[in-house]
Write a structure and sequence with these properties.
The protein has 528 residues and is mostly helical. It has 26 helices and no strands. The chain has helices at 3-7, 15-26, 41-73, 76-79, 89-96, 106-121, 125-138, 146-153, 158-177, 181-192, 199-211, 215-226, 233-245, 249-262, 267-291, 295-305, 313-329, 333-346, 351-363, 367-397, 401-419, 422-436, 440-443, 452-466, 476-496, 499-507. It starts with a helix and ends in a 21-residue tail after the last helix. Residues 1-14 and 24-46 have low confidence and may be disordered.
């Protein structure tokens, strides 16, 4: 030490004193008093008496400094799902004990405001109000900067948002109780624009969607909750219910099982679980009967299955389509038609019912109606396959190979479904073409086996017969009729006199359906 350092003295109650003590400790120099110490005994006594309180004060300051950094760096979106983590009891108490104006910086105030907005986002209005109160108290601490005070004063404006969320939720739940689901959705959607991550509001909205029959959207609403909380009983039941209503019985069953495991007194889950088990059991029995060619038994089992839950439209539509297939195989075409029509009335998109109805039209030689059904199915399958393929390719680009494999596999399942009727589509189109096209051989009054010379002679004969100059004295209607016949004879000659055109005409080549012919996925894509 230099002379200046030796002569320097410190007030034992000052921060400088303790900073010097810490410096000496770090240098492993003893701070015990001795004969040669520069501090007198009285100063030493004061130091000894003030040390516990000083240490306690420093410990408190250190804790509060750490706490402020926790607030500033905390990531609410990742950590807070049900309740804001920083408003749990310990953190809330620590915020209430903050009294050091030097630690209340603009960044810390911003962090406190994020606690308020996090609670609003989660729909926790009570906790948001407590956060506002605690933050307002910080502005009353002497020594807080004017900027921080201004920022804190502005947080009270959030009280209006809290009141609005509560009013909208109350109105929405009121409409839900009286089963006015569309109106309830309006209120809940408005509330969710502010409480965007509120599980309670999301679940209520999902219930509205389910009651409105919008089961796909309802399942998505439940999924968004389960991504944050996989054991949420309400969301598990909602998703299971939507899957059940959309005829996804096996997946619905697993959801109901989870609900019953988590909530043993959930009566609705128990009821639907039993119905789902019955549906699966009856389907298995019917398939076994079909495989053993006991078609009458299969028809009886499907009839029993239809009585399990008559209000489930999609399941009922599927069962009626299955029974229609049995009727078709039993040659009970009127019964098959009846079940197909009933199935399609319940679910316009039931592909199994469309297929059986198209087959009935073919059986009755109603080619145009058959083509209409097959083309409708072809368009749906093409769009379904292409959307899954595009989604799979997008997943592959971001190296999500599992998701890509799942989507490509689903696209190939569509290929399998299309394979059931693609030949029937071509046959129906060809038969429709043959039944509706102009018979050029009849136009020229010749047999289908005649040669080129006979075709030419027949054409010359008909062209003279129908030529407009030969019917100049006829009335306008007759003139128009002869003009049509003359043009048709010329058209017939142009086709039949050309070897290639005649060959295509005789075969009856059909045009592709709207959107083109269906193309299967390349199976090699799964190897990527």
């Amino acid at each position: 030490m230099g002379k200046a350092d030796v002569k320097q003295t410190f007030d034992p109650n000052s921060k400088e004193f303790w900073a010097k003590v810490d410096e000496l400790r770090h240098k492993d120099i003893s701070t015990q008093l001795g004969d040669k110490d520069q501090l007198n005994s009285r100063a030493s006594e004061k130091s000894a008496s003030s040390q516990p309180s000083q240490h306690k004060e420093e410990t408190k300051h250190s804790k509060q400094a750490i706490f402020t950094q926790l607030y500033i760096n905390f990531e609410h979106e990742k950590r807070c799902t049900k309740k804001c983590f920083l408003m749990e009891e310990k953190q809330k108490q620590a915020l209430g004990e903050m009294d050091d104006p030097g630690l209340i910086s603009p960044d810390f105030v911003k962090a406190c405001i994020r606690v308020v907005t996090c609670s609003i986002r989660l729909g926790d209005t009570n906790m948001a109000r407590k956060a506002v109160t605690l933050l307002s108290r910080l502005g009353e601490i002497r020594g807080v900067s004017a900027l921080c005070q201004a920022m804190i004063s502005g947080v009270r404006a959030h009280n209006q948002s809290l009141e609005q969320i509560e009013r909208l939720e109350e109105s929405g739940m009121g409409e839900l109780r009286v089963k006015n689901f569309t109106k309830a959705m309006e209120f809940l959607d408005k509330a969710l624009t502010q409480a965007t991550a509120c599980t309670r509001l999301k679940l209520a909205r999902g219930d509205c969607l389910a009651h409105l029959g919008r089961y796909v959207e309802g399942a998505k609403a439940a999924t968004s909750i389960l991504q944050e909380d996989s054991r949420n009983v309400g969301a598990l039941f909602l998703r299971g219910f939507c899957l059940y209503q959309k005829n996804n019985i096996e997946r619905a069953l697993t959801h109901f099982q989870q609900v019953v495991e988590l909530s043993k007194d959930h009566e609705r889950a128990k009821t639907l679980l039993n119905k789902a088990k019955l549906f699966i059991q009856k389907k298995d029995l019917a398939l076994r009967a079909v495989n053993k060619s006991r078609l009458e038994e299969a028809e009886s089992i499907y009839t029993e299955a239809l009585a399990i839950d008559p209000r489930n439209k999609d399941v009922k539509a599927s069962l009626m389509a299955d029974r229609a297939e049995i009727y078709f195989r039993l040659k009970r075409i009127p019964d098959c038609v009846k079940d197909c029509d009933a199935s399609l009335q319940l679910d316009q998109g039931c592909l199994a019912a469309m297929l059986q109805r198209a087959k009935c039209h073919m059986e009755n030689k109603e080619w145009e109606q058959a083509v209409r059904f097959f083309e409708r199915m072809n368009s749906r399958d093409r769009q379904n396959q292409q959307s899954k393929k595009a989604a799979g390719e997008a997943a592959l680009k971001v190296n999500n190979h599992d998701e890509a494999y799942r989507l490509f596999s689903e696209a190939m399942e569509v290929d399998k479904h299309h394979a059931k009727y693609r030949q029937l589509l071509r046959e129906a189109k060809q038969q429709h073409l043959l039944a509706t096209r102009v018979d050029y051989y009849a136009v020229l009054a010749i047999e289908k086996t005649v040669g080129e010379s006979e075709i030419r002679k027949a054409y010359f004969k008909k062209s003279k017969e129908y030529h407009p100059d030969r019917h100049a004295s006829a009335d306008d209607v007759e003139k128009e009729e002869f003009v049509k016949k003359f043009k048709l004879a010329k058209e017939a000659y142009e086709v039949l006199s050309d070897i290639e055109k005649r060959k295509v005409y005789d075969i009856g080549v059909v045009k592709p359906p709207p959107g083109g012919w269906y193309r299967d996925m390349d199976k090699k894509i799964l190897k990527n």
